[in-house]
Amino acid sequence: MMTNLFSTFDPSTNIFNISMNWNSTFIGLLTIPSMFWLMSSRINILWNKMNLTLHNEFKTLLGPKSFNGTTFIFISVFIMMLFNNFMGLFPYIFTSTSHLALTFTIALPMWLSFMLFGWINHTNHMFAHLVPQGTPPALMSFMVLIETISNIIRPGTLAVRLAANMIAGHLLLTLLGNTGPTMTTNLISMLIIGQMMLLILESAVAMIQAYVFSILSTLYSSEVY
Hints:
This protein is an all-alpha fold. 72% of the residues lie in helices and 0% in strands. The chain contains 9 helices and no strands.
């Protein structure tokens, strides 16, 4: 039963289908008409307003010492995560963000680049982050160990948080869908209503998790300046 349940997250065993599954991470963006970015529709206006809001928020978190254009990196990450989270809610579409192979591949290089930049260019500042202000001298060595471990596990927590939330929602939808054939006609309508409510909840989770992933990446980046 558990094998069948989690098999919904497995790519196809066919080599061609495996490549197409992972290509679905980006291929959907190619279906957006090129004129969409030039049109002044309500959707486009709302999209531009959202990007501007994210830019201002990320700029505030990064501070005045950040490089120009840094916010666009995190906005791009947010858009990619949001798009893939939403695409995974549609039937028969591979949910790439539910796999650590994707989330960890994005989180680890970003974290490594932040750490290398900080330790090479702002070494004293990075050492100061290992000992929080006001730490008693007797606990300084212990706090250095805790802060070091906390920094090392950051890419793992970023990747696992996103993948686990995507898996949890899809498992609930799969469990409810599998109970349909065994239910009576009167209960099927309640099941459909429950699935619709859960789908709305998963849509909110898709947006929230994309935002959390990008905002935490921004906070980690702000610590190296």
